[in-house]
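A further point concerns the way the authors explain their paired sequence and structure data. The central task, working out the structure tokens from the amino acid sequence alone, is never made concrete. I therefore recommend that a typical entry be quoted early in the introduction. An entry of this sort, consisting of the sequence and the corresponding backbone structure tokens, reads as follows:
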Amino acid sequence: MGQSRTDSRTLLDGFENYLLVERSLSRKTVEAYRCDVNQFLDTLPRERPLSGALDAASIRAFLRLVSRLGLVRTTAARKLTAVRILCRYLCMEGILQADPSVNVKLPRRRRVLPKVLSSSQVERLMEAAVQVPDRFWGLRARAMLEMLYGCGLRVAELKGLRRDDVSLGDRFVRVMGKRSKERVVPLGEFARDAVQDYLTQGRPHFAGKRASPYLFLNRRGTGLSRMGIWKIVRQCLDLSGMGRQVTPHTLRHSFATHLLEGGADLRVVQELLGHADIGTTQVYVHIDREYLREVYKTFHPRG
């Protein structure tokens, strides 16, 4: 079967009819699959018959192209599904003798390394929290930032902290993580001092006559929302002049990376972060290697 424009149009019409009639797919899904298949067919050499041009290599080449375009993984998966259904259809029609898509998988997605702050940037952010005229706001913001960074907490974990979860004397905090998994994280000196100042001066101001169990309170004396936490961190970032590329989760990434830079064991970092799978924690090893590479290039005479 040649692959002129006419042949492609006829093929697509037959494929569309197959999807609608035999597969009973919705019109919207059929339109998406037809578009995906048309894109795929456009990548095949027109001078060769379809039976010779469409093979596993051509499908993988198409998926690499999709990956380079930066499309989200769900879109890439849909395009692969469309090509697989096309291959089955062509086998049914006798155009292909075997299905070349059977062993084709999506290319492994490159893991994007999370942004990490340097120690000096962390210090700038902490200092920004106490620059505001509202002293109580500053005490709360500083305590929140110190716990996000010093304990490696997620925003949801910080939000859920109760007053009784923090033991200043024993210097630890009890954290309820994902899937209700509890862990105990040490409370560093800076975090302990910031929380102590907030508890003695800031929290009573926000609590008023309310008796909320939560550690961090809003102006109404109730627990802060996720958005409330984001706004406070964002204001501190603006004051520090670090722009808007940093998020509360960046402090958690920085916590893990700085521990590894200091020589902490990967398993220990996994426990502190509350990761169920050490594979999730290993991304920070890659960050650490990038850091080592930069140090080498900066300071080694032949770097």
Q: What stands out?
A: The chain has two domains: 5-92, 119-299.
